[in-house]
Amino acid sequence: MKKQTGAVVLAELLKSLGVTHIFMVPAVLRRTMVEIEKRTNIKRLHVHSEKSAAYMADGYARVSHKPAICMAQIIGALNIAAGLRDAFLAHSPVIALTGGREPKTKFKKVYQEIDDMPAFEPVTKFNATIDDVNRFSDMMEQAFRVATSGSPGPVHLQFRGNEAQIDLEEIEEEVTVNEINIQIPPHRPICDDSVLKKALEAIQTASKPIIVAGGGARHSGCSKELLTFAEKLSIPIATSLNGKDLLNSNHPLSCGVVGTYSRESANLSVKEADLVIFIGSETGSMTTHFWAVPSSKVRVIQIDIEPENLGRNYNLEVAIHGDAKVVLERMTKLADSKNFPERTEWLSLITKLRSDWYNKYQPLMESDAKPIRPERLCQEISNAAPKNAVFVVDTGHAGMWMGGMFDLTHSEQTYIRSAGHLGWAFPASLGAKCALPDKPVICFTGDAGFWYHIAEIEVAVRWNINTIVIVNNNSGGNQSKRGFDRAYGGEQTEEGRQLWTFNNINFAAIAENIGAVGIRVENAKEIKPAIEKAIELNKPVIIDVVTDINALAPLATV
Q1: What's the pLDDT tens digit per position in 497-523?
Q2: CB half-sphere exposure, 66, CA atoms < 13 A
Q3: Which of 125, 112, 109, 110 is nearest to 157 (CA)?
Q4: What is the CATH number of the domain that holds 22?
Q5: What is the pTM of this model?
Q6: 39 and 90 co-located in one domain
Q7: CB atoms closer than 10 angstroms to residue 493
C-alpha cells in the first residue's frame, strides 16, 4: 500500500464523512487544508474568532442534524472550548479539532503552550488526543460516533503540534468509514411493550394530561409521530424552547413554550394538568421554571433516549427509555382510541387559555408606538416569514420575546435558539445558512447580543452567506433593568443605568460600510416591507429595528 500523509487521510476522511464546511481560525492542520482544496469540495471558512467558529458549526449541526467541524490552533483552543458550552447544553454534535502540545517540549515553556485538555472536559462527550498519525481514521470515526449517538453532543480531538503538524507524517492506510454515524440519530432504541402499555394505562386514567416536548424530541425528528399520538389520545402539547418547532403555534393542541422564557398560556396549561408526559426533556430549570411548572406533586411519565435523565427531577409513574420517534409510533399503535376519553372540557380550557393570552397581548402586537414595541416586532416577523424559513434566536430578552410572542405558522419552518450564551445567534445563523443555502435564514438578536460577534458581518459578505439579521435595537441590555432596580431599592441612578445601557448606534450604517445591506426601521409599519425586501435581495442583510428600551419581556407565570 502506498504511503500518504496524515493530511491526505484526514481530507479523505472528512469528505467520506459528509463534511461540507469547516469553520476555523488559522493556522491549524495547514497541510490538511491544502489537501482538502485539492481533493474535496469542502468549504474552509476563515472567520474572526474561535468562539464564532464553534457557534457557526453549532448552527450548522442543529439545522442539518449532522456533525459539524470547527478548528483552531493551540492558542485559540480555549476560545473553542468556550464556544462549545452552548453546543453542549443544546446537545449539538459539534466536533472541534485543535492543535496541541508536542510531548518532547512539554513543560519547557514553549510559546503560547498551555494544557487545554481539562477545559474541554465539562463541555464535551468525548475529549481525546491524537499523538500518532495511525490513529486518524479510528479516532475521527469515534468522534462522529460519540457526537451522534444517544443524546448527541460536542467532541474534541487535539492533534499533536501547536498547529497540528502531525498531519505531515506519513501513513499506510485505506480510508473507510461507517456512514451510520453521519446523521442523528444513528440508532433508535425502544423498550418493552409492557412498559409502553403501563404508560398508556396511566394516560387513560388522567382527565387532564399534557405533553411537554423538548429538544430530545426535536433531535429524534418525531414531529409527525408526536402529533399523531397527541391527536389520537386528545392530549395538548407544550414545548421547551429547544422544541418550539415541533408543531405550529396555530395547531389546536398547541399551548406554546413552557418554563421561564415562556408563553403564559403554556405555563397555565401545564399547571392545570393532572399528568405530565415529558418527551425528550431533561426537565431542567428553564423548561419547568425551577420545577414549579409542573409541581413536584403531579403524576409524571418521561420518555428519553438518555437513561440518566429519567427521574432526574420528578418522581416517575412510568420511565420509558427509548428514542422518541419509535416510542411514540409504537404507543400510537398500541393505543385503542375507544378506551381513551375525548377530554372535551380539558381541550376547551386549553383553547380558552390560548385565546385569553392572544387577547391580552393583541394591543401590543398591533401597536404603532414609537419607539417600536418588541411584541409588534415579533408579530410582524411571524406574518412576514416565508413558510420554509429558518429562525435562529439569541438568549436574554431576544429569547424571551421570540419564545413567547413569536408564532411558527408552517410545518416547514425551523427554530433553533441559544441554550444560554448571548451573542450565539448571529454566527450560528451563518452556520445554519451554510447548511441550508436554499432556505431563508432569519436571525433575531438584540443589540447587546449583536455586539459580541459583529465582525462576522465581513465573513457573511466575503463568503456570500445571505442571512437576514433582525436586531432588536433598544440601545441597552434591558433584561438587566429589573435586577438593577432591585439592587438600587427601586430607583436607579443615572450612573446605575450606565451598567446596562449603550450609545445609540445605527447598525444598518455599519453593515453598509462592511459591504452588507443595511435597513434602518423606526416605524412599525416598515418592519414587514423590510423583511420582504431582505428576502428578495438574497444578500447579507442587517435590519436594524429601533425599539423601546422600557419594554420588558413578561416574566414567567407560575
Answers
A1: 999 999 999 999 999 999 999 999 999
A2: 19
A3: 125
A4: 3.40.50.970
A5: 0.96
A6: yes
A7: 10
